[in-house]
Amino acid sequence: MTDATQNIGTTAGEGQFGDYWALLKPRVMSLVVFTAAVGVFVAPVSVHPFIAMVSILFIALGGGASGALNMWYDHDIDTIMKRTANRPVPSGKVAPGEALTLGLWLSFISVTMLGLASNWVAAGLLAFTIFFYAVVYTMWLKRWTPQNIVIGGAAGAFPPMIGWAVATGGVSLESVLLFCLVFMWTPPHFWALALFMNNDYTNAGVPMLTVTHGKRETRKQIFIYAVLLAPLAIGAAFTSIGGWIYLTAALYLNAKFVWGAWKLWQREEADAEADIYTAEKAYFRFSLVYLFASFSALLLQAVWVKAGMGAW
Questions:
Q1: What is the C-alpha separation between 295 and 59, in angstroms, rounded?
Q2: In whole angstroms, how far apart are CA 246 and each of 159, 205, 240, 293, 295?
Q3: Where are the domains of the chain?
Q4: Whole-number mean pLDDT of the chain?
Q5: Torsion angle defined by CA atoms of residues 133, 134, 139 and 142, in that order, rounded to the nearest 10 degrees
Q6: Which CATH superfamily is 15-171 part of?
């Protein structure tokens, strides 16, 4: 029995409120909340502010449920990885069973309440998202294929589509584009992280692309996905949710995203190791800025149009 495992067994149950809050992955939840809120607001159907607020709350709870279930199942490899060793379960502050119970209850509450508060299409999409992240990604893809992030990225891409469904009761081209924007963004984002956290994934036996195909191939794939993302992101400007504000932002952000990916691809591994992956860390940070700025531009565009200013 490892020290980390002993720690789980002897100190679990001493968790404070902050430890249970951490189970919900609040940083990830912030992305879920924001993209879902944008999905609600940019939709062509107005939603009562109270309905919108509680719907976003339940979508956030669903995201938190996914995080708790992920931490329950992954606590064995989380103890090995430096990036995750201090999470509530591997650190021994919360028992694995408690994380599982919390995740299951939050899943039930969030899906049921979203269905009652808005509609059952949105609730069904949330239920599928939780299932996809907790079962398809966490229990299957993550440990079995280097395509884990590519396919698993769908889980993080559903929130804006769910938000759209809250408002409209369905799915449309625009909500699919919102999904695709996050879906295609996910691999470059996480592969950039994997470039400078590769030892963690190697030690834990997680078949990230950097582990199975090497960092050179990973750099190439980051560039390919950045290039594929650009026309989807820019193309959204020419739908009902787009306009000149979003188009301006999309052109700048995608040019910078693709150019940064190109520079990562051309970078020699020896240079990256020499400066402790400075460029890779910067690209990872910018990828977060990219997504928040893209959705902020969509939100600003919607505010502009709803104020009667016109898309173009």
A1: 17
A2: 20, 41, 11, 10, 9
A3: 15-171, 172-312
A4: 92
A5: 30
A6: UbiA prenyltransferase (1.10.357.140)
